[in-house]
Amino acid sequence: MTLRPLIAASEISTPIGPISLATSEKGICFVEFGSLQTTRPIFITKLKRHHVVAEVREDRGPLIEAAEKQISDYFTGVRKGFDLPLDLFGTAFQKLVWHEVEKIPYGSTASYKQIAINIGAPRAVRAIGGANNKNPIPIIIPCHRVIGSNGAMVGYGGGLDKKEALLKHEGALKTLTS
Question: Where in this chain does the record put each Methylated-DNA-[protein]-cysteine S-methyltransferase DNA binding domain (predicted)?
């Protein structure tokens, strides 16, 4: 197992409810919807899944402060994207998908099929959905912008209500169906 002695975690307030962030020494590693009390065990489970043993401690370090500022700026309309260091836990395929999802502009959407075509795997639509579902850093990696080929709002780890709120905030909801 890889040893990471400390994962700093904290909760921030947003218009769509509390969001918990976790950071390693390399960058943001997890974002979860909900209070730190409910998400801390989720962070620990995800770390174990990737063979990482670490202490998850409540700590508002400079990276969490920067993330809170950028997320706040996102919700006030000042910021359209993020420039935070990330420490992604996932397979090579998942990381490829997440990097492609990061390219979807604010206020726009892309289908799972479009993502599959863009990464050169046009038949991997279901695998794209699986990778999107495992995105450890929603909002910052904007998986809420990925929709069904028919324009339907489908699947979101934080719940379709959060996806709808994020797309509405960005002005991308007008052409979608549910």
Answer: 92-172
Contact 153, 178 (CB under 8 A): yes
Q: What is the pLDDT of residues 35-48, one digit of tens each?
A: 999 998 888 888 88
- Give alpha helix (H) positions in the chain: 36-49, 62-75, 92-101, 112-118, 125-133, 160-170
CA pair distance 96, 107, nearest whole angstrom: 22
pLDDT one-digit tens code per residue, 72-91: 999 999 999 999 999 999 99
Residue closest to 145 by CA, chosen among 86, 175, 98, 105:
105
CB half-sphere exposure, 54, CA atoms < 13 A: 28
Is 29 one of the annotated active-site residues of the chain? no
Question: In angstroms, how far is CA 95 from the centroid of its own chain?
Answer: 12
